Amino acid sequence: MRPEKHNSRRAISPPKSTPQLPSATTHPNVDAIQRVDRGSELGWRAQLAVPLAALVALAIHLLFSKRAPAVETHSYTLFFYEILGVSAVLSIAQGFWMPLRSWMRHMFPILTAAILLLGLWDIVTFGFQLLPMPYFPGPAAVLRSLINDRVLLLDSTWHSLALLLSGYTVGVLVGLISGVCIGWSTPVRYWGMPLLKVVGPIPATAWIPLAMVVSPSAIVSAAGLIALAVWFPVTMLTASGISNTRASYLDVARTLGAGRAYLIFRVAIPAAVPSIFIGLFMGLGASFLTLVVAESVGVKSGLGWYVSWAQGWAEYGKVYAALIIMAAFFSTIMTLLFKVRDRVLVWQKGVIKW
Prior knowledge:
- The chain folds into 2 domains: 41-134, no CATH class; 149-348, MetI-like fold.
- It has helices at residues 30-38, 44-64, 70-93, 98-127, 139-148, 150-184, 186-199, 208-214, 218-243, 247-255, 260-297, 303-312, 316-344.
- The protein starts with 29 loop residues before the first helix and ends in a 10-residue tail after the last helix.
- It has 13 helices and no strands.
- Helix 2 (44-64) runs parallel beside helix 4.
- By secondary structure, it is an all-alpha fold.
């Protein structure tokens, strides 16, 4: 028997690959896990930055505050002791609460710089007296004014809030209505745009003499001036958003049988919401300015009145105390409006942070 010939065309099997252990360079999630592990604890530099800055600022104050009243020095010293106590509590709590740890890691450079600026403020005012007194008091005097006039400042803040909200609400409502009408209707736009071009660019504060004569009370005139300051940007941005609604949206809605009310409230206004919020932000900034000017001129209450009253008595520590309250007050209102915008415009969240 002939030996069988082996077929030279054998199927060559692919070489078996040797299993490899996952390494830090091949696994895609290892780097992220390592970053989380490295950031799981707050470093000692971040924990000690704020307390050390507080100690430095306190030492500077004690060094240069020999001419300052004992009451101011006592209150200012207690303020830094409170900073040290709060820093110790936060350092302990951040080990058990991840959001607090992230917040401290993000904020400790800003807080440290702010506390060191207090020390620089002391050096410029009490130390070398580079700024004329009493126009530029030290931080201890401002803190003492905040403590002494806390009841009056709280009452002034409450009156300012009521006046601001009343004028801003009226201005927004009127601005939205007029903006929708001008943006949607051609006849209304024909007659409304000249009015906007003439009245709108005039600052609301320029109408104060006329408002004080026409209005029955200073409160009503101040609220009307705030509403006028808000009305112009809200109207312009709302009209712009309504008129720039895509024609394809309107055509599709008409094809499906939508009426005029549906086109306005369910198509045009939702499409104009980003522009409307820009107008709301611009109107809010204008309302702050008008509020302070109106209170300092005619209204006998509020933060603007408090600043004018303190300036009249040359109590500039109280003036700076009111400015601090204004900054916190206006910033809080602006933050709330940003929160509303982020809730309504979810797809734009994080575009502009506050």
